[in-house]
């Protein structure tokens, strides 16, 4: 049997292979409306309602570093990243099951703090924590959360239904999470250097106060359930939707590939957290790379038909950043002078390469395209 490294095909290549193997199983449950490929799987509950379900793993040293992550924040984030996938179907979350594998280094108090954080997030989203599983772990802390939600059949929104001419919108501001992660990683390095400095045994003082907005975007992101509610108030059912877990570039490509379209994004329209801009200046980075490739902002990217454009135009916190195009026009980023660059090739441009430290959280040998 040959041995192909997972890094050779990447996370999405692997998911494609899994999908091919298991696709036949979908026929066994005719009420499963759609499975692998969207933010949630969709099940027909009754003639009016769909049930949606999503699951996400958070693994120590891959997705988080306990040196820089308070347990309460980790609990909140573990739930929020799942609720974000529920929001990405235009649905409302209902209940969650939570499994944890705990190494010896973790105390009872730490697990209590984790669940306190998760409970606080659950109360905000109206989610019940309904069960789970607990195990010892011989390596790091591992967290698996599954959330079930619901949406009326007319309001379900998938990734594969954008049409040329639709406008592309984003909620909130991007780049904050990547900027916060960089500030945290730098602080961690300073702390480790201090610990190893035998000449200087004074207490180490963290200096994250100036970075707290971006840091909290990274440590405790909020799922945009308010956007789902706002869209309902505006009487808008988007034509396609996805949450921004892997960066704007990746999510735009997912919508386009699945909808068989192209797209153009206008660089100067992309809303950037001002604090992220300051941090990027400090790191001598181009902040647009944080928005495009940084990920973990958990904003909602969605498309609307031209008929709905007016309803959005004057609303705060929802920004029109581009337009869906025919597939043969490709997926482009346009600068303020109208010059376009192929988004697929963009990582090759020095100008847009994500900061190296962005991947430092992961064990470098063990990374094969799995993103934070
Ligand atoms: P998201 O970033 O929205 O959580 P992912 O990129 O993790 O989505 O997953 C993309 C799609 O692949 C989803 O529909 C998910 O359910 C599916 N998927 C991911 N990993 C697996 C797996 N190991 N087995 C089956 N389906 C998977
Ligand atoms: Mg998602």
Q: How would the blueprint of this fold be written?
A:
Layout lengths: L5 H17 L9 E3 L6 E4 L4 E11 L11 H17 L4 E11 L5 H18 L2 E9 L5 E11 L14 E5 L4 H20 L16 H8 L5 H9 L6 E4 L4 H12 L1 E6 L7 H9 L4 H8 L5 E5 L4 H5 L4 E9 L4 E4 L5 E3 L30
Parallel strand pairs: 4-5, 9-12
Antiparallel strand pairs: 1-2, 2-3, 3-6, 4-6, 7-10, 7-11, 8-10, 9-11, 12-13
The structure holds adenosine-5'-diphosphate and magnesium ion (MG).
Name the CATH architecture of the largest domain: Alpha-Beta Complex
CATH superfamily of the largest domain: PurM-like C-terminal domain
- List the uncertain runs: 348-372
| Overall geometric form | globular
How many helices in DSSP terms?
Answer: 10
Report the span from N to C terminus.
31 Å
Question: Could you characterize the architecture of this molecule?
Answer:
The chain is α+β, with helices and mostly antiparallel strands and 372 residues long. It folds into 2 domains: 147 residues, 60s Ribosomal Protein L30, Chain: A; 165 residues, PurM-like C-terminal domain (Phosphoribosyl-aminoimidazole Synthetase, Chain A, domain 2), CATH 3.90.650. It contains 10 helices and 13 strands. The strands form 2 sheets. A 7-stranded mixed beta sheet has the order 8-10-7-11-9-12-13, sandwiched between helices. Strands 1-2-3-6-4-5 form a 6-stranded mixed beta sheet, covered by helices on one side. β2 and β3 form a beta hairpin. The longest helix is centred in the middle third of the chain and has 20 residues. It is globular. The relative contact order is 0.16. It binds adenosine-5'-diphosphate and magnesium ion (MG).
């Amino acid at each position: 049997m040959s041995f192909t490294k997972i890094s050779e095909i990447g996370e999405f290549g692997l998911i494609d292979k899994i999908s091919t193997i298991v696709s036949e199983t979908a026929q066994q449950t005719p009420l499963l409306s759609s499975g692998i490929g969207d933010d949630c799987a969709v099940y027909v509950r009754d003639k009016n309602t769909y049930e949606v379900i999503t699951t996400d793993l958070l693994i120590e040293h891959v997705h988080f570093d306990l040196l820089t992550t308070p347990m309460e924040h980790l609990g909140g984030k573990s739930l929020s990243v799942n609720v974000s996938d529920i929001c990405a179907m235009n649905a409302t979350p209902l209940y969650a099951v939570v499994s944890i594998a705990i190494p010896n280094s973790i105390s009872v108090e730490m697990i209590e703090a984790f669940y306190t954080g998760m409970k606080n997030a659950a109360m905000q989203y109206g989610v019940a924590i309904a069960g789970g599983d607990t195990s010892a772990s011989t390596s790091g802390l591992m967290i698996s959360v599954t959330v079930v939600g619901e949406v009326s059949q007319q309001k379900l929104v998938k990734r594969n239904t954008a049409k040329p001419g639709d406008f592309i919108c984003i909620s909130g501001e991007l780049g904050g999470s990547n900027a916060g992660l960089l500030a945290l990683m730098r602080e961690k390095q300073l702390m480790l250097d201090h610990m190893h400095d035998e000449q200087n045994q004074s207490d180490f003082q963290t200096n994250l106060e100036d970075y707290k907005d971006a840091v909290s975007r990274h440590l405790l992101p909020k799922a945009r359930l308010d956007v789902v509610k706002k869209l309902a108030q505006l009487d808008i059912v988007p034509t396609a939707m996805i949450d921004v877990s892997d960066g704007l570039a990746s999510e735009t490509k997912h919508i386009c590939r699945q909808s068989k379209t192209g797209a153009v994004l206008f660089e100067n329209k992309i809303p950037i957290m001002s604090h992220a801009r300051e941090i990027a200046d400090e790191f001598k980075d181009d902040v647009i790379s944080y928005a495009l490739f940084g990920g973990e902002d958990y904003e909602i990217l969605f498309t609307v038909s031209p008929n709905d454009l007016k309803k959005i135009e004057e609303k705060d916190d929802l920004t029109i950043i581009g337009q869906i195009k025919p597939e043969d026009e490709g997926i482009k980023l346009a600068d303020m002078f109208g010059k376009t660059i192929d988004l697929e090739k963009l990582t090759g441009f020095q100008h847009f390469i994500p900061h190296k430290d962005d991947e430092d959280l992961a064990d470098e040998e063990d990374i094969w395209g799995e993103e934070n």
